[in-house]
Design goal:
The complex is a heterodimer. Chain A has nine helices and no strands. Chain A is an all-alpha fold. Chain A is elongated and about 60 Å long. The termini of chain A are far apart. Chain B is an all-alpha fold. Chain B has two domains: about 1-55; about 60-160, no CATH class. Chain B is about 85% helix and about 0% strand. The chains are: A mainly alpha, B mainly alpha.
Chain lengths: ~170, ~160
Amino acid sequence: MKKLLKNDVFQFLSLSAVITLIVYGINAEKGAIVTRTVYNTFIEVLDIVTAVSIFIGLFQVWVKPPTIVKWLGKGSGLKGFILVCTFPILMGGSLFTVFPLLKTLKEKGARQGAIASFITAWGGKAPLLPLETKFLGWPFALVRLGFVIVFAFLMGILMDWVGEKPT
Amino acid sequence: MRAGTIYLLIALVLLGISLLKEKQRTKEAIKATFKIFYVLMPVLVFVFVLMGLIQAYISRETIANLLGQRSGILGILSAEIVGCIALFMPPAVFPFGGYLLKNGASFGSIAGFVFTAILIGITTLPLEFKLLGKRFTIFRNIFTFVLAFFIALLMEVILR
């Protein structure tokens, strides 16, 4: 039981159910709006979320963290910098999964600019393009993706500019 | 054909190619896929409930006033702050953003929200401190917030 209560999946689902029930209790009409929104959106995204999960799953087993670290090296030099600003766009995961990978990169001697570029580029989230285009449209998604690369470049430059230690 | 169906077909083709190349790894990939789906769906359901709450209680005008084109710079800034504290996983960011967009938020606000929701997380700050250092964390988060603001502003100009 304790384990169940600590389970994220259980927490999110029970919280969702409790909120919906409370809304229903206060006002059935508003409750109906909530359940309708949940149902409609759920149906709308089911196939996309399945596809996205497959994309991320495939990427995870075919491109393992050691491979990434090997490819990116220290992220120094122009080639390394460009790679660090673009390649992570293809990756899935959340900040919780990306920070440990970056620690390894740092231990291998990557500069902090390269690490900051990596995080920013990782925010590009190409595996989620099906979701992004569905809800925000292709123009938004493409413009954002273009800016992500610029964003990653600038982050790298700024973070190297402030330096690793206070002077 | 629905866009979702096309993506699903592409995903299945890729899965097929993976299976032809290496059986063991494909098995792992399918396991990973189930795990991702299992973790993702409840979060999405929760976000859909939030969307339903907004639908039920907050009017279109309120959203348009707070995050719409008229809200300008302040709209982008408040959207960024919401992004920083929102506990969304990245995949939940887009449905929520799309929902706000449909209800009168501007492209700039949505861009600001999307950037900070993915790149800045109050809940991940302790981990970032621990793994990458305090100085790095502070500078990275400040620069991300500021740059996201200017890029969001540019995106608003381009997309409006």
